[in-house]
Specification:
Elements lengths: L10 E4 L6 H31 L6 H30 L3 E3 H34 L4 H4 L2 H27 L8 E2 L6 H5 L7 H35 L3 H28 L10 H21 L2 H16 L1
Parallel strand pairs: 1-3
Antiparallel strand pairs: 1-2
Helix pairs in contact: 1-2, 1-9, 1-10, 2-3, 2-9, 3-5, 3-7, 3-8, 5-7, 7-8, 8-9
């Protein structure tokens, strides 16, 4: 496309989830409650893990990092959605849209990598207990977390560069409540077939690859538990079961959304709510309600706060 017929779009219009006033109030209440639960629940986990020396194992170190990522991940979209629903202002600047797209994929893919590391941690604890302390040493845990963030950054940079190289010269209505690669790419005024396949290969294969690694680790854990049944192994299996719930809520919608080019099927914006809002909300509920150690630590923290 030549420069003469190119005019840069300066803002996008996020059409949101619904134009109906009653539904907008419902979605505002829903997002507000979900965001509050994400903030309060994950902050409580972080404070509890940091305050209790008994929760110093690699599993709780990774859980603390997961809670921090969930707060960041939901904060990329939820505040903007709440403001739009409350004020009715649906416009977002081009730069703001690209920034939201970048941080969404940066934090989201980092969470996928971290969940894979957490599955590896459970596999090592159950299947190689004698080597667990050496394999999951604190320095190794920090290196794995840093690798998750680095992998998320590289993935997000690729998605952002592929989006920025497209010309936007006309339509600016995004049929979603946040800026993501698929609805944004559809607005480009050029042939985006190659870009769509590259994006599907990037986001989709990352989601699918991490999911398959997670499934493989759970299969190995199940085989180990069946071969050696004990109270400790069933306790570890219970932890893995809660992990599976989180993984299903996050990965399945992402695989459905990203493992295809943008033009093959319309993006279901209601499915996006699952992995942008409800999956981070479920993490503190699942990990606190199913972990007696975390609940006991929270109770001790509460008693210390009341006594002080």
């Amino acid at each position: 496309m030549t420069q003469d017929n190119f005019s840069q779009v300066t803002e996008f219009i996020l059409l949101g989830l619904s134009d109906t006033q009653e539904l907008q109030f419902f979605f505002f209440t829903l997002f507000l409650l979900a965001y509050a639960m994400v903030l309060l629940g994950n902050l409580l986990i972080i404070v509890t893990v940091r305050a209790d020396p008994k929760l110093s194992s690699p599993m709780y170190f990774l859980l603390c990092n997961l809670s921090f990522i969930d707060i960041c991940y939901t904060s990329v979209t939820a505040p903007r959605v709440l403001v739009a629903l409350l004020s009715g202002h649906k416009a977002i600047a081009f730069e703001g849209c690209i920034a939201q797209l970048f941080f969404l994929h940066f934090v989201g893919s980092s969470e996928m990598f971290l969940l894979t590391v957490m599955a590896f941690d459970r596999y090592t604890a159950i299947c190689r207990p004698l080597h667990y302390t050496a394999i999951m040493a604190r320095r190794a845990c920090w290196a794995l977390v840093a690798a998750c963030w680095a992998g998320g950054f590289i993935h997000s940079i690729v998605q952002t560069v592929l989006t920025l190289q497209l010309p936007f010269c006309g339509p600016n209505m995004i049929h979603s409540y946040f800026c993501d690669v698929l609805p944004v790419v559809r607005l480009a005024c050029t042939d985006t077939t190659l870009t769509e396949w590259l994006m599907a290969s990037n986001s989709g294969l990352i989601s699918l690859g991490c999911f398959l690694v997670l499934v493989a680790s759970y299969v190995l854990i199940l085989a180990k538990v069946r071969a050696c049944v004990s109270q400790g192994h069933w306790k570890a299996l219970s932890t893995c079961a809660s992990h599976v719930m989180v993984v299903t809520l996050l990965f399945m919608p992402c695989i459905f959304t990203y493992l295809r080019p943008a033009g093959t099927l319309p993006t279901n914006k209601y499915i996006c709510v699952i992995y942008t809002t409800f999956s981070p909300m479920m993490n503190p509920l699942i990990y606190t309600l199913r972990s007696s150690e975390v609940k006991e630590s929270m109770w001790r923290l509460w008693k210390r706060c009341r006594a002080s």
